[in-house]
Every structure is written in structure tokens, then in C-alpha cells.
Design brief:
Layout: H1 2-7, H2 14-22, H3 28-89
Length: 93
């Protein structure tokens, strides 16, 4: 937890965090630092989660576009094959 706090700019040692979690008295500045660090870590987690969801949606959208393109091309190939097949069975002039 102290590493996550350090990422947001709050420097509290791991042993001091353990003491605070165990019920040790905290100074006002430590309480403010801990509340800020918790809020900042939550914000970072939500930002990461939103980016991940956006990336997943983008990948699904491009996958859908690729699949629909392949289906359309296969449809065109089938229509061309059908016309060639029908043209082969027409009597010559």
C-alpha cells in the first residue's frame, strides 16, 4: 500500500501504515495524507479501468468491421461466381 501511496506523492513508510491500521494514533497531517492517498489511488484505478474498457470497445468495434468486410467480400465473390456459372450455361449466339 505504501508503494501505491508513493505513486500519488504521499510518502508514508510501510511500518507506519501498519501502525495506523492497527489503531495507532495519527497526526492530523497523516490523516489528511492518508485520505488524499486513498482518494488519489481510487481515481487512478477508475482512470485505468475506463481506459481498459474503452480499449476493449475499440477492439470489438474494429473486429466487427473486419468481419463485416470479409462477409461483404465473400458475398461479392459468390455473386461473381454465380454470374460466371450462369454465363457458362447460356447458349452461344
Amino acid at each position: 500500500m505504501s508503494r501505491r501511496f508513493a505513486e500519488v506523492g504521499v510518502r508514508i513508510s510501510a511500518s507506519r501504515l501498519k501502525d495506523l491500521a492497527a489503531g495507532s494514533a495519527a497526526t492530523d497531517s497523516e490523516r489528511i495524507d492518508v485520505k488524499f492517498a486513498l482518494a488519489a489511488c481510487e481515481l487512478q484505478r477508475e482512470t485505468f479501468s475506463a481506459r481498459l474498457i474503452r480499449a476493449q470497445r475499440r477492439c470489438v468495434r474494429w473486429l466487427l468491421v473486419a468481419i463485416m468486410t470479409i462477409v461483404a467480400l465473400l458475398g461479392l465473390i459468390c455473386v461473381a461466381y454465380l454470374f460466371i456459372g450462369l454465363a457458362a450455361h447460356l447458349p452461344p449466339f
